[in-house]
Specification:
67% helix; mainly alpha; elongated
């Protein structure tokens, strides 16, 4: 098992996002698998990974929408739904890990 002092939390988050992008994986499945792999980390470290990944993916949807790229229509629907479902500036709740 890897010593937890050697785990770069941001690197773990990047690997999760890369896996989702590369293999068209479902974010919640890839994130869950990664959190199980690193279950020996403290709860606040796993929560940081979770929130960083979820926040990055959320921001990606918004940027795709604003950019008006090929995924714009899908992103526009998701972004509009997100804005309706929660007040501006209020982050999504972090899942219990």
């Amino acid at each position: 098992m890897t010593d937890k002092m050697q785990v770069n939390l941001r690197q773990v988050a990047m690997e999760i996002l890369y896996e989702v992008q590369k293999n068209n994986g479902l974010l919640h499945v890839v994130l869950s698998d990664a959190l199980k792999k690193y279950q020996y980390l403290d709860k606040n470290e796993r929560s940081f990974i979770s929130r960083l990944v979820q926040g990055t993916e959320e921001r990606k949807i918004e940027l795709d929408y604003r950019r008006g790229g090929e995924e714009c229509q899908c992103a526009a629907r998701l972004f509009s739904q997100m804005k309706r479902d929660r007040p501006a500036g209020r982050p999504l709740p972090v899942e219990s890990v």
